[in-house]
């Protein structure tokens, strides 16, 4: 039990039954104090380079460590939203992308934050972050914020943000098929050697477009062909093991389209090749290494290609395929998050049947208070405390502050409601119970599933 959380909460001793009137404050305090282990982000260590003007680090235009006001305000969620205010007929997409980041940020700030009320979750998040950093969210321009960040050291800033967000560890997404990232791993094997971060091997092309992935593997020295011969399978497994070793990855991950099916059918874009790679390379390798395989299911990529990263959408995925995988690969552990709201209930139902399935997070378009509330309530009602309620999916370091602030508020409100229902049965709930439950939800369930 994390004594750090429980020792100084006034007005209650650990074993005393909690009264209904105490619940609200106690649950919110315990959730605020419990460090969260963030199991899915797109954040990077400083050694991956930063494109952000700052006090100490060399600016690397292709650097992967994103932080500061201009990255915050040009987050791809906000690019999509600004195009609802200023259409492409006024600012053609390619013109926007040619603008320097500073001009993109000024454009977004003006249209989403000054000339309109920033009520969207992505806008509100920027405001929460600015305020938590001690800055005034009412500025009409970004100038004062720019000055604040220009004086910051990126490495020190990571500690500051983790402390403000009360995040104990950051799990990265390391896309090995991204040349910019891959070359950084090869140039510096210690690029991720930072105790605050853990690596995850992300392999989307291997399942979404095997012929393209096979061509890359051949380029990289693996004897893979586009046909799935035994040699190809062996070489794909060698590739996976090489990179899981290089990254000391704590799990392997993929984002899959809504039409993913297992077994594959002709209409399934992952197809027979993807199924074979999954069955004969990825799952056996993960099982052998006792590593979870994270399946993030339901993303349609580049539905609006002109918006680039902001152009993806969601779709209803097939739960039966997931259930088959959990049943037919009992030696494998599956982290699963799904992108369609309509998939959430069935995901809870199959999680009740398969203990090698760990539902996690309110992903992407679901990461909004109304849907986090709905999903978290449903998960408590069907799964007790045996799930991982949230990950940040942060792409910009500073987002940890708002993504965890906002989620903690919602999770606390739902958990309070659950405890109130328990008290109404006559069963008592102690302060220690709440500390234990919250520790599992924000930290322990993730660690335990990794270690299983
Ligand atoms: O595939 C993923 O991991 C998604 O989270 C995408 O990165 C998406 O663009 C995103 O950032 N969602 O929050
Ligand atoms: Zn993500």
Describe this structure in words.
This protein is α/β, with parallel strands linked by helices and 452 residues long. It is 49% helix and 8% strand. The chain folds into 2 domains: 35-44 and 165-395, Metal-dependent hydrolases (TIM Barrel, Alpha-Beta Barrel); 69-151, Orthogonal Bundle (uronate isomerase, domain 2, chain A), CATH 1.10.2020.10. The chain has helices spanning 3-6, 20-33, 69-73, 76-82, 93-98, 101-114, 121-132, 143-150, 154-165, 179-187, 204-208, 210-219, 230-247, 271-288, 319-328, 344-351, 369-383, 399-423, 431-451; strands spanning 36-38, 167-171, 174-175, 197-198, 201-202, 252-256, 293-297, 299-300, 313-314, 334-338, 357-359. The chain has a 6-stranded parallel β-sheet. A 3-stranded parallel β-sheet has the order 1-2-4. Helix 13 (230-247) crosses helix 14 (271-288). The longest helix is centred in the last third of the chain and has 25 residues, at 399-423. The chain is globular, with a radius of gyration of 22 Å. D-arabinohydroxamic acid is lined by residues 42, 173, 255, 296, 299, 309, 312, 364, 393, 395.
Care to give the gist of this entry?
The chain is built from 19 helices and eleven strands. With 452 residues, the chain is an alpha/beta fold.
């Amino acid at each position: 039990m994390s004594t750090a959380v429980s020792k100084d909460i006034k007005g209650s001793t650990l074993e005393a039954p909690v009264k209904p009137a105490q619940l609200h404050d106690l649950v919110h305090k315990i959730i605020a104090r419990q460090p969260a282990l963030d199991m899915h982000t797109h954040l990077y260590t400083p050694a991956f380079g930063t494109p952000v003007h700052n006090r100490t680090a060399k600016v690397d235009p292709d650097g992967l460590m994103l932080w500061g006001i201009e990255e915050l305000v040009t987050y791809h969620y906000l690019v999509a939203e600004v195009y609802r205010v200023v259409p492409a007929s006024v600012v053609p997409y390619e013109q926007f992308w040619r603008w320097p980041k500073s001009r993109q940020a000024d454009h977004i700030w003006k249209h989403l934050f000054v000339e309109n009320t920033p009520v969207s979750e992505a806008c509100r998040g920027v405001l929460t972050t600015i305020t938590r950093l001690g800055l005034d969210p009412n500025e009409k321009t970004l100038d004062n914020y720019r000055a604040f960040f220009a004086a910051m050291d990126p490495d020190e800033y990571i500690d500051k943000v983790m402390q403000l967000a009360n995040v104990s560890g950051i799990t990265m997404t390391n896309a090995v098929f991204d040349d910019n990232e891959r070359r950084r791993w090869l140039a510096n094997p210690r690029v991720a050697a930072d105790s605050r971060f853990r690596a995850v091997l992300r392999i989307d092309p291997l399942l979404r477009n095997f012929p393209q992935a096979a061509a890359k593997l051949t380029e990289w020295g693996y004897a893979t062909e586009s046909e799935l011969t035994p040699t190809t399978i062996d070489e794909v497994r060698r590739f996976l093991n090489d990179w899981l070793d290089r990254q000391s990855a704590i799990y392997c991950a993929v984002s899959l389209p809504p039409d993913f099916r297992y077994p594959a059918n002709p209409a399934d874009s992952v197809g027979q090749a993807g199924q074979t790679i999954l069955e004969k390379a990825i799952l056996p390798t993960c099982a052998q290494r006792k590593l979870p395989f994270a399946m993030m299911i339901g993303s349609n990529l580049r539905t609006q290609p002109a918006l680039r990263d902001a152009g993806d959408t969601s779709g209803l995925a097939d739960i039966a395929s997931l259930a088959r995988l959990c049943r037919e690969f009992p030696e494998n552990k599956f982290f699963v998050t799904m992108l369609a709201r309509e998939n959430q209930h069935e995901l809870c139902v199959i999680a009740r049947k398969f203990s090698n399935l760990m539902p996690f997070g309110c992903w992407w378009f679901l990461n909004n208070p109304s849907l986090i509330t709905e999903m978290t309530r449903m998960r408590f009602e069907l799964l007790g405390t045996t799930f991982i309620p949230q990950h940040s999916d942060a792409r910009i370091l500073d987002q940890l502050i708002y993504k965890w602030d906002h989620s903690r508020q919602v999770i606390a409100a739902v958990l309070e409601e659950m405890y109130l229902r328990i008290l109404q049965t006559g069963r008592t709930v102690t302060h220690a119970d709440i500390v234990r439950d919250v520790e599992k939800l924000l930290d322990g369930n993730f660690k335990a599933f990794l270690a299983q």
